[in-house]
Structure formats: structure tokens, C-alpha cells
Design brief:
This protein is α+β, with helices and mostly antiparallel strands. It has two helices and five strands, in the order αβββββα.
């Protein structure tokens, strides 16, 4: 499966693939983690630097009752992190 179909299409499990958000040149892909009846807020923050794709895995202590709520919160938290740290997040 191509990365574009994973980005905009469906995952191999038939579930909707996470929707990437672009912020300040970074790609944010929410990746909520199911923990029993709640979802932990998590995302992967990526950016191409000098021809190399670099990434940071963000996992927060926050939990949400739904996957959508966790994804939305992950994007908000990732945007704040990018605004605060810029490319330093990829170090």
C-alpha cells in the first residue's frame, strides 16, 4: 500500500487511516493508543530535513473517551509543541 493511500485512504485493517495535518512545514499524524476504555493522546511529528525524513513520537499522559477526541487533542498538542520548539523537536 502506498504512503498516499495510507495517508488519505484506509489502513490495511479496513479502519480509516489517520489524517495527517501540516503545520509550519511539519506533518502531524495522530496515532491514539487504546488503553482499555480510553485512548491515550499520541502523534508522530515528521519533517524532511536535508533530504532526510526525521520524526518525533509524542505520547502524552492525557486520555480521551473516544479515538476522535484523542486525535483532535494530539493535533492541538503537537501544534503547540512545534510552535514552542520548532526543529529542535527533531534533535
Amino acid at each position: 500500500m502506498s504512503w498516499l493511500s495510507r495517508l488519505f485512504g484506509r489502513s490495511g485493517t479496513g479502519a480509516p487511516a489517520p489524517v495527517a495535518v501540516i503545520h509550519e512545514g511539519f506533518e502531524i499524524v495522530p496515532t491514539p493508543i487504546r488503553e482499555g476504555a480510553v485512548f491515550r493522546v499520541a502523534a508522530e511529528i515528521r519533517k524532511e530535513v536535508d533530504g532526510e525524513m526525521r520524526a518525533h513520537r509524542m505520547i502524552r499522559a492525557d486520555t480521551c473517551p473516544t479515538e476522535k477526541a484523542a486525535s483532535d487533542l494530539a493535533v492541538r498538542k503537537a501544534r503547540m509543541l512545534i510552535d514552542q520548539m520548532g526543529e529542535g523537536i527533531l534533535s
